[in-house]
Amino acid sequence: MIRLKTEKEKMISGEKYNPANPRLVLERARANRICTKYNKRSFNEINMKSRLMRKLINTNGKFWIKPPFFCDYGYNIFIEKNVMLNYSCVILDVCPVKIGEHTLIGPNTHIYTACHSLVPDERISDIEFGKPVTIGKNVWIGGNCTILPGVTIGDNSVIGAGSVVTKDIPNNSIAVGNPAKVKSKNE
Questions:
Q1: Where is the Maltose/galactoside acetyltransferase domain (predicted)?
Q2: Beta-carbon neighbour count of residue 77 at 10 Å?
C-alpha cells in the first residue's frame, strides 16, 4: 500500500502543498506563541540565547537572536554555533533554512523560502510551495537585506546592506544591490 505524503512533508520537500492544512495552522500558531513570548521579554545579552528559541529552532551551539524575531514554523531553521541575528529578523521557513557557523545577520533582514504560484487559480486555491535557503559559514549579511527562496550564499561572503539576493552568491564574494551582484572577491 502506498502512503501519501502529508501536507507538511510536501511543504518541507518543496512540493505544492495546502498551507490551510489544520496541522500546519496549529504549528504556525505554536511558533507565533513562542515568538510573541520571546519578543515580550526585556532584552539583554544574557537572555538572547533563551531556552524559548531552543524550543523553536534547531541549533548545535550558542547563538544570539535579538528580539523581535518572527518565523513561520521554526523547526525548519537550522543554526550552527556562534550565529547572531540582529533586531527584527524574519524567516519564512516553509522549507529548510540553514545558517552556517560564525554568521552575522543584520537588523531587519528577511529570509524567505515561501513561494506563491504565478497561476492565479492556484493562488486562489491555497496552493503554495517553497525552496530552501542556505547561508554558509562566516557570512556577514548587512541590515535590511532580503534573501529570496532557493538562494545559497557561499562561505566567507558579505552581502551589503539593503541588498536583495535573488541568485546564488559564490564563496568569498562581496555582493551588493537590488538585485545583488558580486562586486569583488573577498580572499
A1: 8-62
A2: 25
Q: Alpha carbon of 41 to those of 30, 70, 71: distances in Å?
A: 17, 14, 17
User: Which amino acid would we find at residue 141?
Assistant: I
Give CA–CA dist 166/178, Å, rounded. Answer: 8
**Amino acid at site 56:** L
Does the predicted model carry a pTM greater than 0.90? yes
Cα–Cα distance for residue pair 11/38, rounded to 1 Å: 26
Within 8 A by CB and 6+ apart from 67, the residues are: 38, 39, 41, 43, 87
Q: What is residue 132's DSSP assignment? A: -
Condensed to tens digits (0 to 9), the pLDDT of residues 13-54 reads 999 999 999 999 999 999 999 999 999 877 665 555 567 888
Q: In sequence order, what E strands does 68-113 have? A: 69-71, 77-79, 83-85, 89-92, 97-99, 104-105, 110-112
**CA 123 – CA 3 distance, rounded (Å):** 27
Domain boundaries, the chain: 10-185
Fold (topology level) of 10-185: UDP N-Acetylglucosamine Acyltransferase; domain 1 (2.160.10)
116 labelled catalytic: yes
Residues 6+ apart with CB under 8 A from 147: 109, 110, 111, 112, 133, 135, 141, 153, 159, 165
Contacts of 127 (CB under 8 A, 6+ apart): 16, 17, 18, 117
